[in-house]
Write a structure and sequence with these properties.
single chain; Quinone Oxidoreductase, Chain A, domain 1; 7-stranded mixed β-sheet; ADH-like_C; NAD(P)-bd_dom_sf; globular; Rossmann fold; about 350 residues
C-alpha cells in the first residue's frame, strides 16, 4: 500500500509498504479521509511534541475515517462494507485510570501517529474493533474524520460541566476552539463568545456556533466580556489556544463561582496566573487531556444537522501531496484551518 512516511524532520516520502496483518480482534480499514492535526505538524517541523520524540520513520495522521474491508475472526459487531470513524487510542483496560473510566489517562496507550506508533496517512490501517464506530449513511468521510477533534470539544464541555442556558467563552478559534464552540452550541449554551486575533477565524466561529466574537487586534477582552455579560462574567471559560495570555484571559473572563477548562498546551510549562483571582472568585480549574467515551455521542451530535463541522476545512490534498499539505499548514496559518488528506 502507499503511505506518506516522515523519514526525518521536514521530510515526508511516499513509500510502498505492506498492508497490515490483521489480528483476530481487529478490522482492516481502507482509509478515506484524514485530518491534519497540529500535533502532526509539530512532529514534522520539530521531530517531537513534549516528551514524545520521533526516533525512527513514522506515519503521521490520527483523525481518520474509512471503509471496513476485512474483519478479524473474533469480531462479531462489525462487518465488511461499513463506513466508520476511528478512535485512535488503544488503551490497556487494566490500569487504575482505565478501570475508573478515564482511559484517556492510560500510561500504556498506543495512540496513532504518536511515536513509536504509526498513523493513518496510508491506504489501509488495522484497528482494534472496539475503537471503530459505524457512521450514518448521511455522514461524509470528512465529518467522520473530524469526530476525533470534535471529541476534544465534547470532553471539554463535559469536564467544564456546561449546562443548557449557560454562557461560555472560548479563547482561540483554531480547529479545537471551533469544534468546542460547535459542541457548546449542540449542548445548549445560551451565549458562546469566540476570541481570536484573526478575523477570518472569528467569521468561521460564527458559522459553527459562536454567538459573539472578540477580535483581540481591535478590542479589549475584559471590556467586551463585561459588555456581553452585563459585567457578570461567563459561567465557563475554555482555553484552546495554548497561549499564556489566553490562559490568563480565562480568569479575567469567568464569573465568581465559575469554571475554567484548559485544553491548549502552552509552549512554556509554567504560566503566571492570579492566585488572588482564583481564590476571590472561587473558580474551579480543570485540565483537559484528549477525551474518553465520546465517539457515540459525538457521532450523534454531528449527525443531528445542527452544525456543519466541515466549514472548518480549508484545504484538501491527495496522499501523494502530503508534504505540500504540511508546508501549507506551516506557512499559511492565516488562511488555513483544517487540511484534509485523502489516502484512497
Amino acid at each position: 500500500m502507499k503511505s506518506a512516511v516522515l523519514t526525518s524532520v521536514k521530510n515526508i516520502e511516499l513509500q510502498q509498504i505492506d498492508i497490515p496483518t490483521l489480528k483476530n480482534d481487529e478490522v482492516l480499514i481502507r482509509v478515506k479521509a484524514v485530518g491534519l492535526c497540529g500535533s502532526d505538524v509539530h512532529y514534522y517541523e520539530h521531530g517531537k511534541v513534549g516528551n514524545f520524540i520521533v526516533e525512527k520513520p513514522i506515519i503521521l495522521g490520527h483523525e481518520a475515517s474509512g471503509d471496513i474491508v476485512k474483519v478479524g475472526k473474533d469480531v462479531t459487531h462489525l462487518k465488511e462494507g461499513q463506513r466508520v470513524s476511528i478512535e485512535p487510542g488503544a488503551t490497556c483496560g487494566e490500569c487504575v485510570h482505565c478501570k475508573e473510566g478515564r482511559y484517556n489517562l492510560c500510561p500504556s496507550v498506543e495512540f496513532l501517529a504518536t511515536p513509536p506508533y504509526d498513523g493513518a496517512f496510508c491506504e489501509y490501517i488495522a484497528m482494534r474493533a472496539d475503537l471503530v464506530f459505524p457512521i450514518p449513511d448521511s455522514m461524509s468521510y470528512e465529518t467522520a474524520a473530524l469526530v476525533e477533534p470534535f471529541s476534544v470539544g465534547v470532553h471539554a464541555i463535559r469536564r467544564g460541566d456546561l449546562q443548557p442556558g449557560e454562557t461560555v467563552i472560548i479563547m482561540g478559534m483554531g480547529p479545537i476552539g471551533l469544534v468546542t464552540a460547535a459542541a457548546a452550541k449542540v449542548a445548549g449554551a445560551k451565549m458562546i463568545i469566540g476570541v481570536d486575533l484573526e478575523q477570518n477565524r472569528l467569521d468561521v466561529a460564527k458559522e459553527m456556533g459562536a454567538t459573539h466574537t472578540i477580535n483581540l487586534r481591535e478590542e479589549k477582552l475584559e471590556e467586551k466580556v463585561n459588555e456581553y455579560t452585563n459585567g457578570f462574567g461567563v459561567d465557563l471559560a475554555i482555553e484552546t489556544a495554548g497561549n499564556p495570555k489566553a490562559v490568563q484571559g480565562t480568569l479575567s473572563s469567568v464569573r465568581k463561582g465559575g469554571r475554567v477548562a484548559i485544553v491548549g498546551m502552552s509552549p512554556q510549562d509554567e504560566v503566571p496566573m492570579s492566585i488572588s483571582s482564583m481564590i476571590d472568585k472561587e473558580v474551579d480549574i480543570k485540565g483537559i487531556f484528549r477525551y474518553h467515551d465520546t465517539y457515540p455521542t459525538a457521532i450523534e451530535m454531528l449527525a443531528s444537522g445542527k452544525i456543519d463541522i466541515e466549514k472548518m476545512i480549508t484545504n484538501e490534498y491527495p496522499l501523494a501531496e502530503t508534504a505540500e499539505a504540511f508546508e501549507r499548514a506551516i506557512h499559511d496559518k492565516t488562511n488555513t484551518l483544517k487540511i484534509m488528506i485523502y489516502p484512497s
